[in-house]
Amino acid sequence: xxxxxxxxxxxxxxxFILGSWLIFDSARKLLxxxxxxxxxxxxxxxxxxxxxxxVRPGDMAIPFLFLGIIWIVNGVIVLLGASTRYERTMAISTxxxxxxxxxxxxxxxxxxxxxxxxxxxxxxxx
Length: 126
Prior knowledge:
Number of domains: 1
Order of helices and strands: HHHHH
Distance between the termini: 22 Å
Low-confidence stretches: none
Mean pLDDT: 89
Number of helices: 5
Structural class: mainly alpha
Helix content: over 70%
Largest sheet: none
């Protein structure tokens, strides 16, 4: 296994951070009935988005749990150097864009980094 590039390492770290947060926050919701900060500052902008789609924000704990697991798995796949790692990252990032603010920021950043890394890898192969 070759050493991952700096860009791949950054993508993996961001994947682990967002995945860990999603798992923690959704597990907290399932165990206590509240997302982190829900009782003090309220829910984030993502709640407005899912409410507009007709979904209660409280019903998002299980999807967020699975999304967090997928982000963690994505980080491992990127570090292992799978051939489709950047396509996978762009796909999960696109799905996570609605999770405003952390998901949007990390999603945009990982999409940009993945596109850059794909372009670098493609030019190295040519």
